């Protein structure tokens, strides 16, 4: 009989994808023959079919399941969909599912190769696989003198490939990674996914435009806007350098992750200008902007050098302002309302 030399899909017969489960204790094999795509959904569906048709009856009191699997393929340790589908399976069955992957390049250590698939290959050797029925029946007829039994079924289901699992979904999975090679060894608890993390706190609104009044800054509106625009780039570089030194290396999180700065650039510059013009104490400014005194200190330290290098001279006020009430009164005299901000919850 004329046959293909490899397992390429046949235009008339389609494709056959055997996914096997071997029960070490029972010396029993179970093979699900798929006809669509070898995906993680197909792999976990094969395990689910084995459990509902054989495993659950054999081990009615089981509360956990140990799976040894290859490092790659549809059940690879890097495949997100594999873990996501297993988590759903664990939730449906109430089983804690532990997976131990064989290290890359050592899949032949898996007992399923020596105790199941090797015998299936010997049994159908020289027999043309001319249809799905022949494949299923040939696999199911495999036996050994040591008592191996094999069940085979045909799975005509559709398993589309290319499905992406988001970072949020992966973060929510109830997975416990083992201390030793947690990427290869992990347990999925029979729990629903964790609720999504709360949205990040909204960015603090910039300083009120009226707060940058010439009566407070000593600068006209056009000069103030130009100052903020000029300092934006060097301030960003200054911040990245400081963070790089503090971390001891490049960032480990995606851009935009974490809390937004307590003060916007405009607010930082305004606090420094008020300090220079009026000598207003830091605690008063901290109350006005709804932040800690340390935040005011950091803002002044970060923007002083930038103002000296890029900014226009800040004219000192004729009269110092030492309290928040005095600053508020001075602003009110020029038609400006200074309403202290509420410190945001962290």
Describe the structure.
- The protein is α/β, with parallel strands linked by helices and 346 residues long.
- The chain has two domains: 17-188, no CATH class; 209-251 and 260-332, no CATH class.
- The protein is 41% helix and 12% strand.
- It has eleven helices and seven strands.
- The protein has a four-stranded mixed β-sheet. Strands 1-2-5 form a three-stranded mixed β-sheet, sandwiched between helices.
- Helix 1 runs parallel beside helix 2 (80-93) and helix 7 (221-247) crosses helix 10 (293-310).
- The longest helix is centred in the C-terminal third of the chain and has 27 residues, at 221-247.
- It is rod-shaped and about 105 Å long.
- The mean pLDDT is 87.
Secondary structure layout:
Blueprint: E1 17-23, E2 28-34, H1 40-58, E3 64-69, H2 80-93, E4 96-101, H3 111-123, H4 132-140, E5 149-155, H5 167-172, E6 175-177, E7 185-188, H6 214-217, H7 221-247, H8 265-278, H9 282-289, H10 293-310, H11 324-332
Parallel strand pairs: 2-5, 3-4
Antiparallel strand pairs: 1-2, 4-7, 6-7
């Amino acid at each position: 009989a004329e046959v293909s030399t490899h397992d390429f899909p046949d235009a008339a017969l389609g494709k056959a994808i055997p996914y096997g489960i071997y029960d070490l204790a029972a010396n029993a094999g179970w093979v699900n023959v798929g006809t669509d795509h070898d995906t993680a959904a197909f792999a976990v569906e094969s395990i689910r079919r084995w459990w509902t048709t054989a495993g659950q009856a054999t081990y009615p009191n089981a509360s956990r399941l140990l799976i040894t699997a290859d490092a790659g393929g549809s059940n690879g340790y890097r495949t997100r969909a594999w873990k996501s589908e297993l988590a759903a399976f664990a939730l449906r069955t109430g089983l804690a599912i532990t997976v131990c992957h064989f290290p890359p390049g050592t899949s032949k250590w898996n007992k399923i190769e020596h105790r199941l698939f090797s015998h299936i290959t010997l049994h159908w050797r020289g027999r043309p696989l001319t249809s799905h029925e022949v494949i299923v029946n040939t696999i199911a007829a495999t036996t050994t003198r040591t008592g191996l039994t094999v069940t085979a079924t045909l799975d005509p289901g559709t398993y589309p490939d290319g499905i992406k699992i988001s970072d949020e979904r992966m973060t929510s999975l109830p997975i416990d990674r083992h201390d030793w090679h947690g990427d290869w060894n992990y347990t999925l608890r029979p729990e629903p996914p964790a609720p999504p993390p709360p949205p990040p706190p909204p960015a603090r609104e910039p300083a009120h435009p009226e707060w940058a009044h010439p009566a407070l800054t000593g600068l006209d509106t056009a000069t103030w806007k130009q100052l903020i625009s000029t300092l934006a780039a060097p301030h960003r570089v200054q911040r990245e350098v400081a963070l790089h030194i503090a971390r001891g290396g490049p960032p480990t999180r995606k851009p935009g992750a974490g809390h937004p700065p307590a003060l916007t650039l405009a607010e930082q510059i305004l606090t420094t200008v008020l300090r220079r013009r009026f000598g207003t104490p830091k605690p008063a400014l901290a109350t006005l902007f709804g932040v800690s005194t340390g935040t005011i200190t950091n803002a002044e330290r970060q923007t002083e050098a930038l103002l000296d290098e890029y900014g226009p001279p800040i004219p000192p006020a004729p009269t110092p302002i030492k309290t928040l009430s005095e600053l508020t009164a001075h602003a009110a005299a020029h038609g400006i309302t200074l309403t202290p901000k509420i410190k945001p919850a962290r």
